[in-house]
Amino acid sequence: MSAGAARADADPLDLAIVGAGPCGLAAAVAAKERGLTHAVVDRGCITESLTHYPYYMTFFSTAERLEIGGVPFTIPEAKPTRQQALAYYRRVVGHHALNVRQYEEVTAIGRRAGGEFVLHTRIRAGREDRIRARAVVIATGGFGKPNRLDLEDGQAHDRVIHYYKEPYPFFDQDVIVVGGGNSAVEAALELYRNGVRVRMVHFLGVFDRGVKPWVRPDIDNRIASGEIPMHWGSRVSRLEPGTATIVRDESGAATGVPDHTDDATAQPHASGTATEIPCDWVLAMTGWRPDRTLLHGLGVHTDPHTGIPDHDRATMETNVPGVYIAGVIAAGFNANKIFIENGREHGDLIAAAVAGKG
Known about the structure:
Layout: E1 13-18, H1 22-33, E2 38-41, H2 48-51, H3 82-96, E3 100-101, E4 104-111, E5 117-123, E6 128-138, E7 145-146, E8 160-161, E9 174-178, H4 182-192, E10 197-202, H5 216-224, E11 230-232, E12 234-240, E13 243-248, E14 274-278, E15 281-284, E16 288-289, H6 293-298, E17 323-325, H7 340-343, H8 346-357
Parallel strand pairs: 1-2, 1-6, 2-3, 6-17, 8-15, 9-10, 9-15, 10-11
Antiparallel strand pairs: 4-5, 5-6, 7-16, 12-13, 13-14
Helix pairs in contact: 1-3, 1-8, 4-5
């Protein structure tokens, strides 16, 4: 679990895994079970993405479907919380004595003439290192880069937050939640019940299908009663001190967007009906996209329409021999296609393929 990974002058590892999320860890367990030497490298901590989930989140999946490495995920409830999952995956690392290098960023991956890969890394203190490996797994997940708001001034604002953890910092504040998925809905409801003046903005006219069915009646009732104002078919176009401008986007007409807003302050605007409202914070629950920098640097092809890297589903090997993918990054733009419960299976496919080449 510590820094016992291969040095640049040592024999190359069989497998270097970039990303210490559940699917990357599952690949490490599979590698170790097949007698393959390995290292898992992550620019953050173990299961970094889970640390950004809301503090009191409960998973949609059951504990059994989140298990990896044959370690039972035993809890009294059917569905684990974020805290239980974080503890569980650290227990897996300890149980299997996985070689995980935390807070070490892979800055580039090169390849020598003989086919061996060299991972160039940098730790937080700035020291650089190299890891040599016969094969590489990119398991960096789907949270590499946030889908940022398209604001008119093109600027990034410190009032725009892409992670939501708890409602308390926003008490007695005006907050816009942007998005129509489960994260947006649950954040809006929790904010509303903790003294926050919250409204929602979604570029479509309906909520995403992934919203939990037991949550839908709650948010539908809050919107119908006006307790959480909803701007369908709209976007946040501009931020000023203490205010935000919400603009109707006519391209949303085909999605069943209502042809009106409930806000009496709506004003004509060049690109559609505009509404200026009080705003202290914007929670942009607009999703994330994978960071494919390392994959593209290695020459892996990505479908421009689906975002899916070119790979063999039987082995998870990409069009570049010796380069594999695992987890959500294999889903392309549709991150909902792959989650822990099916991404955990990629490790066994990869380990079998690498061992077969040995």
